[in-house]
Amino acid sequence: MRVEVDLDKCTGHGICESIADDVFEVQDDGTVLIHDNERPDADGERMQQAVTQCPAAALRLID
Amino acid sequence: MTVASSPQVREYSPLDLSTRRFWSQPFEVRDETFAALRAADGLSWHHPLPTMFPMEEPGFWALTRRADIAYVSQHPELFTSARGIALDPMPFEVQQIATFFLAMDPPQHTTYRRLISSAFTPRNVHRIEEQIQKNAVAVVDDLVGAGDVDFVAACSSRLPMLTITEMLGVAPSEREAVAKAAEKLFSMSDDEYSSLEERAQNTINEMMLLSNTGIELAKYRRSHPGDDLMTSIVNAEVDGHRLTDEEIGAFLILLSSAGNDTTKQTTSHAMLALANNPAQRDWLVQDVESRIGPAIEEFVRWSSPVLQFARFVTEDTEIAGQQIKAGDKLGLFYCSANRDETVYDEPHAFNLQRSPNPHLGFGGGGPHFCLGNQLAKAELRTLFRELLTRLQPIEFGEPDLLLSNFVHGIKRLPAHIR
Predict the structure, then answer these.
(1) A56 in contact with B at a CB cutoff of 8 Å?
(2) For residues B327 and B17, what is the distance between their CA atoms, to the nearest angstrom?
(3) φ and ψ at B145, to 5 degrees?
(4) A54: nearest CA in chain B?
(5) How far is CA B374 from CA A45, B15, B199, B232, in A?
């Protein structure tokens, strides 16, 4: 599975980072950097949480 | 219903949210009215809130259900912030000064937001956690054995004020004045802070004091760069331009109020709720470290420190089956969303084990979701860890409530601390 960010929507709240700080990092320019887009299936629950809790609806999961 | 969509013949709801009398009632009593509105079909139309400015507006639609508020918050193209976000009628120019990028839409908002959010990322908040911890310890040091105190002055107001003013680089001697001005600015509706005649002038005065503090700080940091938020703000470029003095002043007003009063009110409400619910307190104290995270979410839901913000409709559309027109004003009542019985079991119970807890205490999502949410949670975690592990249960007297339709506030809270 792949996790992607829409940078037009991302406002750098950092909720995703508080859920998975090894994957998401809000940079100093206020946009999120995804360290490894391809996620193992075992990481599905955590990624789903990051996607649903993003207040700007900027993240999505692609199977 | 075509009748309801025509402004001339729109009927005002018999459930009146727009009087001082309504807002002088306690939160729980007010929610009986909100509960009736949540249960009704569509949206309800209300008289404009009282205003200190010579402005006339026809009224506003009240949004009371969680789902409707989240929908509006996440569709800024339909529901704009750029015509103002104050529910009480207020000239846009005044709002711009006091709320800065709160009264903007994407993409303009996005540019400013990113500039500022760098200071509030989890990593950067983590970096100042040591400082927050040091301040929280100092606050609680002073409380041990303090006897009879006003808990708001002795505790709730202190950590947020120290944190945000240190982040901004405000000199220690000026911190109290900045915090007081910010508190006053958003408490004008209460007679204690301002008489009716003085209200408009006082608002302008407090705004000028805060704005000038920001401008002075900016000047100093341009010539003496440091390792603080103000230095990054003066150095930041938006579309090739540096922020103007006016913008920096507006930003200081926003940060000093948003970063102060909210966390302060949540601290008072949560401490009172813990004292009134000893079983909940005992449960939390048994394992503070692993239980404080979810508990904080309930603190924020319970407190709902910001009661409402407004939006304007950009094109004819529909919410909850209700036809609404371009130009209509909407009131987003987060206080009501956080008691929505279709979302929460027993919404009026203080339940630290509530899960999930999708409260709107930081807003309904979308671009204006609270920038300081990570910072607020870090402050609350740190402070309550100290309060719960180092102090005996505190006996509280009757809270003195703030009369406001914007901030859910406690002015004073008598406490006896052993």
Answers:
(1) yes
(2) 21
(3) 70, 20
(4) B365
(5) 22, 36, 33, 19
Query: Could you read off the pLDDT of B317-348 as tens digits, one per residue?
Result: 999 999 999 999 999 999 999 999 999 999 99
Identity at B22, one-letter amino acid code: F
pLDDT in tens, B13-55: 999 999 999 999 999 999 999 999 999 999 999 999 999 888 9
B359 Cα to chain A: minimum distance (Å): 12
Among A26, A35, A49, A53, the strongest candidate for a mutation testing the B interface, having the largest count of B CBs within 10 A, is A26
Under 8 Å between Cβ of B252 and B221 = no
Q: Are A15 and A50 in contact (CB under 8 A)?
A: yes
Least confident segment among B9-23, B93-107, B285-299, B329-343? B93-107
Instruction: Please give the ipTM for the structure prediction.
Output: 0.82
pTM of the prediction?
A: 0.92
Between residues 92 and 131 of chain B, which touch chain A (CB distance below 8 Å)? 106-107, 110, 113-118, 120-123
**B294 lies within 8 A of chain A by CB:** no
Which among A12, A18, A57 is the nearest to B117, CB-wise? Answer: A12
Q: B100, B255 in Cβ contact below 8 A?
A: no
> Does A6 reach chain B within 8 Å, measured CB to CB?
no
The whole-angstrom separation of Cα B319 and Cα B98 is 29
Could B121 and A29 be called an inter-chain contact, meaning their C-beta atoms sit closer than 8 Å? no
Q: CA of A55: which chain B residue's CA is closest?
A: B365
What is the arithmetic mean of pLDDT over B276-300?
97
Minimum-distance CB partner of B113 among A8, A28, A30: A30
Can the peptide bond before residue A55 be classed as cis, meaning omega within 30 degrees of 0? no
Q: Which residue has the higher pLDDT, B106 or A23?
A: A23
Cβ separation A27–B74 shorter than 8 A: no
In this structure, the number of other CB atoms found within 10 A of the CB of residue B47 comes to 15
pLDDT in tens, B124-177: 888 889 999 999 999 999 999 999 999 999 999 999 999 998 888 888 898 888
